[in-house]
Amino acid sequence: MSAATNTTEDSSNPKSIGAEKSFLVDLNEIDLDATYATQESIFKMFPHRHEMALLDRVIWADLEASSGVAVKHVRDDEFWVRGHFPGQPMFPGVLMIEAGAQLACYLFNELNGAISTAAFLRIESAVFRRSVTVGDDLLLVCKGVKISKRRFTSAVQGVVDGNLCFEATITGMKIS
């Protein structure tokens, strides 16, 4: 799998994602204000609800490549804020991975044209590079690595303000 690498920074474009960043897709080529799927549409494709519904919208998708970009608005009323950590809330890393996994599951279900629940079998090479906190818009980036009718492996990343916050490879399997 090759990563798209941004090697130039357009200082005249305030939405330009920073120089020398290696992302799974070229974020400078995507309209980050676009909406591919609303949260209501996302709910039609997988079962996560309430506190565990971590995708606010899907911005872009390329189903043939099982790739997509979504956003999670990190809010001050979320269940983890009060205790992780008092006075300095940090979005837990496990929830960052879960948000990326939800995007991967959404893309898997869209590609297969059916709703399924996926259990995650593996998380590999997880690296956390920057903290994410209240008020941040966490862009979730996903690129399929290996996809079948029952299983998928996807590379996922989280990006805030052009900075890579986390990356991992996840494997999931359809259980219902």
Characterize the structure shown.
The chain has 176 residues and is mainly β. It has a single domain, classed as Roll (Thiol Ester Dehydrase, Chain A). Helix content is 14%, strand content 37%. The protein has two helices and nine strands, in the order E-E-E-H-E-E-H-E-E-E-E. It has helices at residues 39-43, 93-112; strands at 4-6, 21-23, 37-38, 57-62, 67-73, 118-128, 137-147, 151-160, 163-174. The strands form two sheets. The chain has a seven-stranded antiparallel beta sheet with strand order 3-4-5-7-8-9-6. Strands 1-2 form a two-stranded antiparallel ribbon. Strand 8 and strand 9 form a beta hairpin. The longest helix has 20 residues, at 93-112. The radius of gyration is 15 Å and the shape is globular.
> Roughly how much helix do the residues carry, as a percent range?
10-25%
Structural class: mainly beta
CATH topology assignment: Thiol Ester Dehydrase, Chain A
Please report the number of helical segments. Answer: 2
Q: Cα-atom Rg, whole angstroms? A: 15 Å
Would you identify the regions where 5 or more consecutive residues have pLDDT less than 50?
Answer: 1-20
Largest sheet: 7 strands, antiparallel
Strand and helix map with partners:
Layout: E1 4-6, E2 21-23, E3 37-38, H1 39-43, E4 57-62, E5 67-73, H2 93-112, E6 118-128, E7 137-147, E8 151-160, E9 163-174
Antiparallel strand pairs: 1-2, 3-4, 4-5, 5-7, 6-9, 7-8, 8-9
